[in-house]
Design goal:
409 residues, alpha+beta, Dihydrolipoamide Transferase, six-stranded mixed beta sheet, five-stranded antiparallel beta sheet, 27% strand, elongated
Length: 409
C-alpha cells in the first residue's frame, strides 16, 4: 500500500513550512533513511527522511511552496499504485491524514535536523548529513564546494557533481565565472523578519531615548572574573552582556510598565521577567526567550543566555521560545560591532526593547576639580508610546543606568 509523506509539525505555533529543495525526484527509488526534501520553518531548517521504501510516485508541492503542517506532500509506494487519493484538496473525505501514531512516527524517525559541520582549519561549512557521508566515503574534501542548497548548504547533488567534475567550484579546478550580480529568493526566515519589522514600525508609536552609563564597575568585575577563571577559582565566564541583562532585569522589577505587552485595547503587565535576547545567526536574527529570568542568579542567567544563543546558532531552539509574545522585554547588544548609537525595533506586542552600544571614553568630573576620561556604554531604549509615556520611560532607562553604575559581584 502506498504511504503518504506528511509535512511534520515543528512546535505548537508552527502552521506552515516552506520546501526549500527536493533531493529526490518523482519516479526515484527511495530507501528508508534517504533524505527526500529540505524545508524551513520561520526560524529553523530541517531535512525530511523517508520512513518507508519504494518509488516516489508523486510530489504534490514544488520547491518554494509554503505547505501547511500535517498535509501530504508526496507519496511513496509500488509502481502503478494510485496517488490521487492522497493529493491535498482532492476528494478530501478519502485523503489519508496523519493520526497520533503516524505523527509520532514522523516526528521520531522521519526528521533529522540540519547540523553544521566544522572543519579542522576552523572554517564552518554547512553540509547535509547525507552529503557528508558521501564525501567522506569518496575521500572528497568539501570545504571549498559552493553549495546549492538552502543558505548555501552543500547537498548530495553538489558532491555528486564535484565527483563527476561538473562543478564550477575550486574542487574541480575550474574558475568561477565573474558575475555582474546575483539574485537569490528570500528565505522563509528573511521573509518573516522583514514582515515583523515592517509591521512593528507600521503598527506602533515608537520613540527612542539615548543615555550613557559609567561602566568602570562592570569592567572591574569582568577583570576579576577573568582572573578567577585563569586561577581555576571560577568556571562560568560571565560577560559584560550578562551583567547588563542582569541590571535590566532588576530595573524591570522596579518599572513593571516596561515589562508589558500592548494589546490594542489593554496592556498586559507581567509579574515575571521573560527576557528576550537578540542573537545573530547564519540564518538571520533570532530572539529566544529566557523564561522567569528574574528568578535566576547572575551565574544561572549567564548559563541560560549562552545556552539559548548556542541553540539558535545550531538551529535546535524550541520554536515556542522564538515567538515575540513569549518575551516580556528584549535586549539587543551591538556593542561588539562597534556601534555607538542605534534605534532598535520593538518586537510587538512587547512595549520596549533596549539597545546596548559599544564602550567609549568620555571626559568626566573625577572629583576634587579633577577631570579625566572614563569608559561609558551607550543605552538606546525604544518604547511604544501607546503603552508608556516619555517620563516613565526616561526613569526606567535611568534606573538601568544606575543599576550598571552600582553593579557589584
Amino acid at each position: 500500500m502506498a504511504t503518504p509523506v506528511i509535512m511534520p509539525k515543528q512546535g505548537q505555533s508552527v502552521e506552515t513550512c516552506i520546501i526549500t529543495s527536493w533531493l529526490k525526484k518523482k519516479g526515484a527509488v527511495v530507501h528508508t533513511g534517504d533524505i527526500l526534501f529540505s524545508y524551513e520553518t520561520d526560524k529553523a531548517a530541517f531535512d525530511m527522511e523517508s520512513s518507508s521504501e519504494g518509488i516516489l510516485l508523486d510530489i504534490f508541492f514544488d520547491e518554494g511552496a509554503e505547505v501547511p503542517v500535517l498535509v501530504n506532500v508526496a507519496v511513496i509506494g509500488s509502481s502503478g499504485e494510485e496517488t490521487e487519493l492522497y493529493r491535498p484538496g482532492n476528494n478530501r473525505e478519502k485523503i489519508i491524514t496523519t493520526t497520533k501514531e503516524n505523527s509520532e512516527k514522523v516526528s521520531q524517525s522521519s526528521i533529522i535536523q540540519i547540523q553544521e559541520e566544522y572543519q579542522d582549519d576552523g572554517n564552518k561549512t554547512r553540509i547535509s548529513p547525507r552529503a557528508k557521508r558521501l564525501a567522506d566515503d569518496k575521500g572528497l574534501k568539501y570545504n571549498n564546494i559552493i553549495g546549492s542548497g538552502p543558505n548555501g548548504r552543500i547537498i548530495v547533488r553538489d558532491i555528486e557533481e564535484a565527483l563527476n567534475g561538473k562543478t564550477t567550484s575550486p574542487v574541480a579546478g575550474r574558475q568561477m565565472p565573474v558575475m555582474e550580480y546575483t539574485e537569490q529568493p528570500l528565505t522563509n526566515v528573511r521573509k518573516m523578519i522583514a514582515k515583523a519589522m515592517h509591521a512593528s514600525l507600521q503598527n506602533s508609536a515608537q520613540l527612542t531615548h539615548h543615555m550613557s552609563a559609567d561602566v568602570r564597575n562592570l569592567l572591574e568585575a569582568r577583570k576579576t572574573i577573568k582572573n578567577e577563571i585563569a586561577d581555576g577559582n571560577a568556571k562560568q565566564d560571565i560577560t559584560l552582556n550578562d551583567m547588563i541583562c542582569w541590571c535590566v532585569i532588576k530595573a524591570l522589577k522596579k518599572f513593571p510598565e516596561a515589562n508589558s505587552h500592548f494589546l490594542d485595547d489593554r496592556i498586559k503587565t507581567f509579574n515575571k521577567v521573560h527576557l528576550g535576547i537578540a542573537v545573530d545567526t547564519p540564518r538571520g536574527l533570532m530572539v529566544p526567550t529566557i523564561k522567569n529570568a528574574d528568578d535566576m542568579g547572575l551565574v544561572k542567567l549567564s548559563k541560560e543566555l549562552k545556552s539559548v544563543a548556542e541553540a539558535c546558532r545550531k538551529g535546535n531552539i524550541n520554536p515556542e521560545l522564538l515567538q515575540s509574545n513569549a518575551a516580556s522585554f528584549t535586549v539587543s547588544n551591538l556593542g561588539a560591532y562597534g556601534v555607538e548609537i542605534f534605534t532598535p525595533v520593538i518586537n510587538l506586542p512587547q512595549a520596549g526593547i533596549l539597545g546596548v552600544c559599544t564602550i567609549l571614553y568620555r571626559p568626566a568630573d573625577l572629583g576634587n576639580s579633577v577631570f579625566g576620561f572614563i569608559p561609558v556604554i551607550g543605552l538606546s531604549l525604544t518604547y511604544d508610546h501607546r503603552a508608556i509615556d516619555g517620563g516613565p520611560a526616561t526613569l526606567f532607562l535611568k534606573e538601568i543606568k544606575e543599576q550598571i553604575e552600582r553593579f557589584r559581584i
